[in-house]
């Protein structure tokens, strides 16, 4: 990995959506979030379209302009309704539309990444569902190329429920389809779906090692990452919590791996309402560890 130096690109931290503190400060519109984040010295923001792509070109452009002025890296979370594995052709057509609309919104906003869920196997086997997902995504990728949107990264996300597609291995398989695909690794989801793993350094390191072995060093170095504390049941994810709550995974060993390996991921915090505060907690630890390493060197 890259050595620390004056020109080293740093990991970027920020929230998913608008935190409670943003509204408590008197703000109401997402066009104000880039300036608010910049004052906190955060450098990333994930705009939420989970309930549908309802942002128009004018609003998206205004958010993008504000973000560019403040050097805030933008991503968009696509609608939760996406299901590349569905056997229903009408739902498959809707899935394609959701992806294309998300990419168009990203273009208007200047966002360089669109995060999406792969879907559910339903009653079929996981392998049959994966085969459908890869086939359908290949078709969508052809349309994306024709529309001139293939410079925007599509990031399938690791999922937190046992009955969903989205294990790390399944996400990596999907990302082998095209160079504009990058894993979105949600460590809270991985913690939930494994019922408590991803609590020590070795488990976090194994993820980056696996991605590097399968997709190359550049992918492992620049992953899109979601991080939050999550409560889980035997079925997987139940509820997102905050860093003040007694749930896992812990952020400290994760941040130590990022700093020690000089990785440059984009880390989006999905805490329940405190996502900016908790992103700052991670960023401050990261910068302390980098500074300690630099002084020691």
From TrEMBL:
GO biological process: base-excision repair
InterPro entries named among the record's database cross-references: AP_endonuc_2, Xyl_isomerase-like_sf, Xyl_isomerase-like_TIM-brl
Membrane-spanning intervals of the chain: none
Record keywords: Isomerase
UniProt keyword Isomerase present: yes
PANTHER family in alphabetical order: APURINIC-APYRIMIDINIC ENDONUCLEASE, ENDONUCLEASE IV ENDODEOXYRIBONUCLEASE IV
Species assigned in the record: Acetonema longum DSM 6540
Pfam families: AP_endonuc_2 (PF01261)
Highest taxon of the lineage: Bacteria
Residue ranges constituting the Xylose isomerase-like TIM barrel domain according to the UniProt record: 51-278
Name of the protein described by the UniProt record: Xylose isomerase domain-containing protein
Signal peptide (UniProt feature, chain positions): none
Keyword presence, Isomerase: yes
MF term (GO), any: zinc ion binding
